[in-house]
């Protein structure tokens, strides 16, 4: 059981979909989930090819607002796709398999990237 707010910053108990997922929910926002998702994504994206592409587009077009809006829309669309695909997959596969599959995909991408560099 977690908590949710009845007003800004106030908390009351609420059931979460997973019994082992206990986290504070304030005004409908699962705080730990939100914070961990933000942290993981921002750290993964720093220095990523997406940032390099945005930097290049901004420098060559001299239209930072247009580049920001286009890149933001692309990231939102990609995230939406991941969420929409993730929900049905999580109903079929146990979370332990999904984590292993995600790890294997990242390792495969890393190996492919390394092999491309040599």
Quick structural gist:
By secondary structure, this protein is mainly α. The protein has helices spanning 31-45, 49-61, 64-92, 95-117, and strands at residues 2-4, 12-14, 25-26, 29-30. It has a domain at 1-46.
Report what the structure shows:
This protein is mainly alpha-helical and 118 residues long. It has a domain at 1-46. Helix content is 68%, strand content 8%. It is built from 4 helices and 4 strands. A two-stranded antiparallel ribbon has the order 1-2. A hairpin with a 2-residue loop joins strand 3 (25-26) and strand 4 (29-30).
Q: Roughly how many Å is the radius of gyration?
A: 19 Å
* Helix content estimate: 55-70%
Give the neighbour order of strands across the main sheet: 1-2
Shape: globular
Beta percentage is 5-15%
Mean model confidence by pLDDT: 77
Sheet with the most strands? Answer: 2 strands, antiparallel
Low-confidence stretches: 1-20
Alpha carbon gap, first and last residue: 51 Å
What is the number of beta strands?
A: 4
Helix/sheet category: mainly alpha
Helices and strands, in order, run as EEEEHHHH
Number of helices: 4
Summarize the topology:
Elements: E1 2-4, E2 12-14, E3 25-26, E4 29-30, H1 31-45, H2 49-61, H3 64-92, H4 95-117
Antiparallel strand pairs: 1-2, 3-4
Protein traits:
118 residues, two-stranded antiparallel ribbon, 68% helix
């Amino acid at each position: 059981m977690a908590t949710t707010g009845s007003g800004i910053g106030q908390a009351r108990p609420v059931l979460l979909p997973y019994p082992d997922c206990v986290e504070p929910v304030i005004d409908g926002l699962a705080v730990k989930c939100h914070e961990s998702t933000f942290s993981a994504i921002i750290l993964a994206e720093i220095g990523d090819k997406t940032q390099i592409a945005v930097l290049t587009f901004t420098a060559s077009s001299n239209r930072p607002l247009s580049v920001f809006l286009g890149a933001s829309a692309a990231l939102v669309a990609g995230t939406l796709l991941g969420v929409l695909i993730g929900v049905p997959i999580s109903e079929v596969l146990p979370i332990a398999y999904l984590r292993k599959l995600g790890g294997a995909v990242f390792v495969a991408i890393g190996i492919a990237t390394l092999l491309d560099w040599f």
